[in-house]
Design brief:
heterodimer; A: mainly alpha; two-stranded antiparallel sheet; 21 helices; about 60% helix; B: about 260 residues; three-stranded antiparallel beta sheet; about 15% strand
């Protein structure tokens, strides 16, 4: 059980619970730590050991009340300062009811549900309360991946029951768990310290690999189950009842794929970590004093050639053949003087008015065809109108002019025209709008504007 | 899908040499470079033969590809794979790889000498790394720390000015004089160009935070610094020995580069 992680998050949350700051004051600085007394954590150790003891006793004899004397007898040397009275004090503390208030009305917490331990009416025989059991479960979370196969089984169970929402919930839980620990391993590979965590991965390396094997085996079953006709039918029924969840068709497979990909990543990180750990190689390089290097430059302690060599080695280079090509993006960005941004074509009002009249007439004459296209495709491309022999316009400049007009809403408003030509959104999404490389077949009429 | 054609392979190499990064997915709010998505997927699904060809080609020209997956490296979009092109210090520097052209971009005046530009460039570069590493006590190996490493233009300028104040105590060398001769506005302009350049080579990326613009370190920069550190600045960098000793002792000298050591 990893009580430290639970403590970290709990204390941080308790900090926010105890906060006396007035809302709306605007200050974002937190200031120095204001914890009552930074003790050595002895009482915390006593509390967690007591909870673990009661948990173990509860596994052997569920729901029974247990004597605290065997617990006191079993305390190791590091906790030898405590007397039996101290243990009784702890039982009293953890079994005392406190009132907690919450702003959120949905959270209702009875005063009676705050103790972690429940004791008999007289004496000090005690057991865990449901809140205490929750604390024990929460303390497992740091090692969650070691129990990842249990989560994988829950995913499999949810799928067999047709509970697709929980399938995704558990899948996300497993993915998060794998990712967090995979990234934690990366941290251990890159920086020194956290010796306890290193020892944890070292001692439980085999257990992790076994769990990974189990998860892979279960995900294999899940994959087969997903392709099963029975599951497909079940999913089809589910989607029929919840049409907004049609994407589950692909989503369920996607989640499974994510689990498998992340498992591979975790396995690679763990192997790399164990390999380094057992080979006793020092992988971590120290912090470099770059400030001293900058002073050394001023003192000419680094020769010019070395400077260039270092800059080149650390990425400050350009392929010269690219620079020679004016078509190259890098060239344009770096060497050529920055060009002014192409402006939107200015709109000639008189020409525009003629064009709009033509456009109105065209739409009036071809209303039925246009409406049919809009109903069918959701829009009508002006390409047909422009390419039409008797159509609207054969001059591409006129077309871009009208785009310029229509993209500026104020001008369109000024003209008081109901017609709005716009640029096909899917085309413009990928390009820079200011460059206005609009081709005439990108012009469309939106259905709502007709 | 990837058809193993020479044309496809050229596209991959071309993109990598231009931008140094190929991403199969990008974070929300970012956009792909032209054709990046297709090219990245082509590389991801490349047949072993094609991949071998690409790796061999790049290796002979002094580069190698490092792959980072979201499942192994924090900060990448879910399921994303990033291909990073880094210099391989074991190989010769290709003839067409050049930092000279960069001087044209970074010099403030038309007739500015190369020495002035180089001193300033290297000086700003080391000050930037002071912010990203030294001040955070961040080891070079801490690649995954790239996500938290950022600074603003003002912070970098302030760091540079503070270092210049230290230099002012002993302004005898030519390089010191160069650094002391620029006025505040010139420093601001130089830093602006430097940051533009760093963004162009995918070493930094702009982050908007309200009205503030910050420059965040990219995974590429963190990876390349770590990969080439031992061949460059050296792993024996310590406070006991002088900077010169460390830098010169550990600087990798590639086969086609003759470095003449100048006496300090």
């Amino acid at each position: 059980m990893d009580w430290i992680n639970l403590l970290k998050s709990t204390i941080r949350l308790a900090d926010t619970y105890d906060l006396t700051k007035t809302p709306g004051l605007g200050n974002v600085q937190v200031g120095s730590e204001d914890r009552r007394q930074n003790t050595n954590g002895l009482w915390f150790s006593l509390a967690t050991k007591l909870l673990e003891y009661l948990h173990n006793r509860d596994l052997a004899q569920p729901m029974a009340y247990h004597s605290i004397e065997p617990f006191f007898e079993s305390l190791d040397d590091s906790l030898s300062v405590f007397t039996i009275e101290d243990v009784k004090f702890m039982v009293n503390l953890l079994s005392k009811e406190f009132e907690l208030k919450f702003h959120d009305q949905d959270i209702s917490l009875l005063k009676t549900s705050t103790p972690l331990i429940e004791k008999k009416q007289y004496g000090f025989r005690c057991k865990l309360t449901p809140t205490g059991v929750t604390s024990i479960s929460l303390s497992y979370t740091a090692e969650q991946l070691l129990y990842g196969d249990q989560i994988a089984l829950q995913i499999e169970k949810a799928l067999s029951l047709g509970d697709f929402d929980n399938y995704i919930l558990y899948a996300d839980k497993l993915i998060n768990s794998i990712l967090n620990q995979s990234h934690e391993l990366i941290g251990l590979l890159e920086i020194s310290g956290r010796q306890e965590l290193r020892e944890h991965y070292k001692s439980k390396g085999d257990a992790y690999f076994e769990t990974l094997e189990n998860i892979s085996r279960i995900t294999g079953h899940i994959g087969q189950q997903l392709r099963d006709t029975k599951t497909e039918e079940c999913l089809a029924t589910f989607i029929a009842t919840h049409p907004e969840k049609e994407h589950y068709n692909q989503f369920l497979f996607l989640k499974l794929e994510q689990i498998n990909t992340n498992l591979l990543g975790f396995r690679r990180n763990l192997s790399k970590f164990l390999e380094l750990f057992f080979s006793l190689q020092q992988n971590v390089l120290p912090t470099v004093d770059f400030h001293q290097i900058s002073l050394a430059i001023a003192q000419e302690q680094i020769p010019p050639e070395s400077q260039e060599s270092l800059l080149s080695l650390y990425g400050c280079w350009c392929p010269s053949n690219y620079l020679a090509s004016p078509a190259n993006d890098l060239w344009e960005k770096m060497i050529v003087t920055k060009k002014s941004t192409p402006k939107r074509p200015s709109f000639d009002r008189s020409a525009g008015a003629i064009f709009l009249t033509k456009l109105q007439k065209y739409i009036h004459d071809n209303r039925a065809t246009i409406m049919e296209a809009i109903e069918k495709y959701g829009y009508f491309s002006l390409r047909h109108a422009i390419e039409d022999e008797f159509g609207l316009c054969k001059n591409i400049e006129d077309v871009t002019a009208i785009v310029g007009m229509c993209l500026t809403s104020s001008e369109a408003k000024e003209l008081k025209e109901d017609l709005v030509v716009c640029v096909n959104n899917t085309t413009t999404q990928d390009s820079d709008f200011d460059d206005l490389m609009v081709r005439y077949h990108d012009l469309i009429l939106k259905s709502t504007l007709l | 899908m990837f058809e193993n054609s020479i044309r496809e392979q050229s596209k991959i190499i071309n993109h990598l040499l231009s931008y140094r990064v190929l991403r199969t997915r990008v974070p929300k709010g970012s956009s792909f470079k032209e054709n990046e998505k297709q090219v990245a997927r082509a590389l991801w699904h490349a047949s072993p033969d094609s991949r071998y060809y690409i790796d061999e080609f790049l290796s002979d020209t002094g580069f190698r590809i490092i792959t980072a997956e979201a499942s192994q490296m924090p900060g990448l979009p879910p399921g994303a794979v990033y291909f990073l092109l880094v210099r391989d210090p074991e190989e010769n520097v290709p003839a067409w790889l050049d930092i000279q052209h960069i001087y044209k971009y970074l010099s403030l005046k038309e007739n500015e000498s190369k020495t002035v530009t180089r001193v300033w460039f290297f000086f700003i570069w080391s000050n930037m790394l002071t912010l990203l590493y030294t001040q955070q006590s961040r080891p070079i190996t801490n690649v995954s720390g790239y996500g938290a490493a950022n600074f603003s233009k003002e912070i970098l300028v302030s760091q540079i000015k503070n270092t210049i104040e230290e230099i002012r105590k002993d302004p005898t060398k030519e390089a010191s004089k160069i650094l002391l001769s620029d006025e505040g506005t010139m420093i601001f302009r130089r830093v602006g160009r430097f940051l533009d350049f760093m963004c162009n080579i995918s070493y930094l990326e702009e982050e908007m935070d309200g009205d503030e613009v910050y420059y965040g370190q990219t995974l590429l920069m963190a990876t390349e610094l770590n990969e080439n550190y031992e061949s460059g600045l050296g792993f024996r960098f310590s406070q006991d020995a002088s900077v010169l000793q460390n830098v010169q002792d550990n600087l990798y000298l590639s086969g086609n580069q003759e470095i003449t050591e100048e006496s300090a």
